[in-house]
Amino acid sequence: MAKKIYMPQLSDTMFDGTIVAWKKKEGEPVKRGDILAEVATDKANLEIESFDEGVLLRICAEVNIKVSVGSVIAIIGDQGEDISQESAEESKTTGKSVTKPETPLSTVNNSAKKIDASDLEQERLKISPLARKLAEGKGVDFSQVQGSGENNRIVKRDIEAKLGVNETVLISSKGEAASSMRQTIARRMLESKLTIPHFYMTTKIDVANTLAVIKSLKEMPGYTRLTFNHLILFIVARCLREFPKLNAFYADDKITQQEQINLGVVASLPDGLLIPVLKNVDKLTLENVVEQASALIERARSNKLKGDDLIGATFNISNVGKFDIESFAAIISPGQSAILAVSSISEEAVVGNGNIKATSVIRTTLSADHRLLDGLDAAKFLSRLKFLIENPLVLWI
User: Fold this and answer.
1) Strand (E) positions, 31-186?
2) Is the full-model pTM beyond 0.85?
3) Which domains, and CATH codes, for the chain?
4) Active-site residue 198, yes or no?
5) Which one of the listed residues 304, 363, 370, 371 is annotated catalytic?
6) Three-class SS of residue 227?
7) Checking CA distances to 85, which of 103, 264, 335, 375 falls within 20 to 30 Å?
8) Residue 234 and residue 227: Cα distance in Å, rounded?
9) What is the pLDDT of residues 247-305, one digit of tens each?
């Protein structure tokens, strides 16, 4: 039986993607795990993996045409299978043939839906003010938009997704793709600073014991690639399990608690930022963290990230350890309640028990959303983090 392959959402900020190259041709056999196509998103080039077996009967998305998330990009089935019905159903749903690109933005009606005073209150219940303003500014008829907010309320992300459906853009060079990444970063960071009331808290941590433990563990099988950042990931996940409010987010006037602890690791690229995501970190051993995090970063550096490598982060960590940075504060990603900034390791003189000694220290700064976190929440989290980093052997007791 023929199956439609849809453009997947390959990152939390992705509304559309551009097929850079098809790795399979029409008529070729496809197995589970085969790479069907390479897709350029707002953050990176990613590969679309097949979860079905059969023959690639039809390619429905052209190369270099932006396609919205959820649109049909291919059909897989048995050799010689009739797929005319699938094509007809898709045409009926979208109003066009599946082999044609989406309608260019320039053809969209520029007059937004108008409402009068009699139904103003009703419309307020259906669409948020921010989404409404965006819809009117972009000429989107929001009566045709399915809301994803509470009680099916239309929110900003729904309008942005609708714009993605109507937008056709050619990405013909690395420069234009990089510009897309930069625009996404600008939009997300502006949204964060305008909508999330940040507050910041910093603590200094003695890491001499941690560095000693890392040195010892690196001599053991499975830990040869162990770094300070791996141990930070391991410890932060356990702190989040103790303080779940930092693994939640505030949206649509309510607090949503995340079920998983997925850590986004902020990575710097020449053209912007990439945040690959390590999943269910609180359930991993330190050896698992080393293995999975190392593989994740290697995929990011070689531009071979998998489909879900950029999705689902519940808490981000930004570590600038390779630079001589004393401290810094990071911006919270929309959909999270906090982010941890980790400085470089430096040698400092500290006073303890009336003695002065030289030791290795870092400074960690927690940026927190004041809508669901108070100073006490941040202080307790950082205090626990400091204790575990300064006394890492407690992790194995």
Assistant:
1) 35-40, 45-49, 54-59, 66-68, 72-77
2) no
3) 3-101 (2.40.50.100), 106-166 (4.10.320.10), 197-396 (3.30.559.10)
4) no
5) 370
6) coil
7) 103
8) 11
9) 999 888 889 899 899 999 887 665 566 788 999 999 999 999 999 999 998 888 777 77
